[in-house]
Amino acid sequence: MDLTTRLVRGAKAFFGARVVYALANAVLLFLLTRYLLEPAAYGTLYFAISVVSVGAMLATLGLPKSTGRYVTEFLATDESQIPHIVRISLTYLTALTLLVAGGLALARRPLAALLGDPTLVPFLTLGVVFVAARALYSYLTNVFQGFNRVEYSALITTVNSLTRLGGAVGLVLLGFGALGAFGGYVLGYAGGAVVGLVALRTQFLPDFDAATEPAADLTRRILEYSVPTAATRLSVVLDSRIDTVLLGTLAGPVAVGFYTLARQIADFCIVPATALGFTVSPAIGEQNADDSTATAATLYERSMENVLLLYVPAAVGLALVAEPAIRFVVGTDYLGAVPVLQLFSFFVVVRAVHKITGNGLDYLGLARIRAIARGTTAGGNVVLNLLLIPPFGVLGAAVATVITYTTYTAVNVYYIHRELELGTGYLVERTLRIGVIAVAMGGVVWLALPQISGVLTLAGVVALGATVWSVLAVASGLLDLGEVRALLA
Q1: CB-based contacts of 364-367 (< 8 A; 24+ apart in sequence)
Q2: What 3-state DSSP class applies to 337?
């Protein structure tokens, strides 16, 4: 199978799974906010998830990424080492998981007291299972990516999404409230992990005859490479979770509810970029390793162009319709999330760029550089949150996130440019043309805003903006309908 066919197949599978994931999350968000949970309970749910997610990170460190990297490498050089890579990494993952889950079980009451919210105790108790399930789920996702079989990552993502939705809604309706919704998350990760383990055992490992002995220093190499990727993951948690933890501690669960709602909407918007980055990153590393630097650079440039074409206009539209979207879809109880969502419209563009850049650095062997950048900006994020949350509340947390994540992404882009020698002039010219499209589309949407009076008219204005964007994108030559039809075929 040639590179293009493999990329398209992987992108389709993972994009489909991310669409299911995003839609399931959107339905869950809508049901929880509109009908099932008040802002305080909604905030408590995601306060708890943020806390136990730190534990889930500690239970994996950098092992999933390191395992994926060496699976990819030894597929090309010595397939007989693959079973040893899986065995070694799973052994260490299990040990870490038992250590962290046990620590959480013992420390759940003091931790809840430290965070100033005793109601977290039952969440932290159930969080022991959350940590184990999510650690294994994360590991399997990266292993399948390392095998260049993204469709299996897509499979367990879909299982997670649908199980989470059904479990969370069902348990809330049974009267378990926010704790029931948390249980849905646990069921989702556990279901995905079980399906992934079965697939790994039956569809992958039987294809490889294990060497008599592991390669020299194989364990050391796996653990050594996991250190910078662990630092990156720790920084990811600090950026994506510690703000919620600090917000819950300093401003209360209602502020967490507003912040989480805005961030979830932003997450929904980056589904295409996530799928593209997940699929393209290993290919960029593969082409660079084969001394096909020009091909790797072209892959990245085209990915960047497509991401900007989609997300710059989308960010403009999101900022404009944020208030009516919250008012008519979620409800007036959550209007406090509007300014955060408007600020996060810029954050959406930055995250989309990072989705096609960050993982690429790992596959180019620059995980250490990425870890240093992430660690530095994550530390800055903590400091900014501590400075900005007391006077500005939820908006202060959002400002801190946008500033630090933008800085981190800029560093990532700089290093991938230095490694691949990207065509800067080409990217600048395309970005300027995309900016013109975004301004024109935004003007049309702004003129139509007074007509929004409910969900249907909101959908009509969004459709109008999308139509203007598509016409201008095709007319400018930035969007090739033939390529779109080929991708969807």
Answers
A1: 364/284, 364/285, 364/288, 364/416, 364/419, 364/420, 365/285, 366/415, 366/416, 366/419, 367/65, 367/225, 367/228, 367/229, 367/232
A2: helix
Alpha helices in 59-120 (DSSP H): 63-77, 82-114
pLDDT of the residue at 100: 95
Choose among 460, 115, 62, 375: nearest CA to 253: 115
Nearest Cα to Cα of residue 284 among 351, 372, 229, 359: 359
Which two structure tokens, joined as six digits, stand for 208? Answer: 């490889």
pTM of the model: 0.80
Structure tokens at 316: 């403009």
Q: Is 356 helix (H, G, I), strand (E, B) or coil?
A: coil
40-98 pLDDT, tens digit per residue, is: 999 999 999 999 998 888 888 889 989 998 998 888 888 999 999 999 999 999 999 99
Residue 334 to residues 71, 153, 241, 269, 341: CA-CA distances in angstroms? 45, 34, 21, 19, 11
| Token pair 């960010």: residue | 315
- What distance in Å separates the CA atoms of residue 434 and residue 429, rounded to the nearest whole number? 9
As to burial, measured by CB atoms within 10 angstroms (0-12 exposed, 13-18 middle, 19+ buried), residue 5 is exposed
- The pair of three-digit structure tokens given for residue 271, joined into one six-digit string: 């589904």
> What's the start-to-end Cα distance of the chain, in Å?
17
Task: Show the tokens assigned to 215.
Answer: 């390669």
pLDDT band at 355 (very low <50, low <70, confident <90, very high): confident
Q: Nearest Cα to 44, choosing from 32, 58, 55, 56?
A: 32
Instruction: Give CA separation, 410 vs 78, 370, 373, 375, 379, in Å.
Output: 36, 11, 10, 14, 16
State the Cα–Cα distance between residues 467 and 460, nearest whole angstrom: 10
**Residue 125: what are its φ and ψ, rounded to 5°?**
-65, -50
CB 207 within 8 A of CB 75: no
CA distance 205 to 222: 18
pLDDT digits 0-9 by tens, 190-224 = 999 999 999 999 999 998 888 888 888 899 999 98
Is 319:439 a contact under the CB 8 Å cutoff? no
Residue 47 CA to its chain's centroid (Å): 18
Nearest of 438, 189, 207, 160 to residue 314 by alpha carbon: 438
Q: How many CB atoms neighbour CB 112 within 10 A?
A: 20
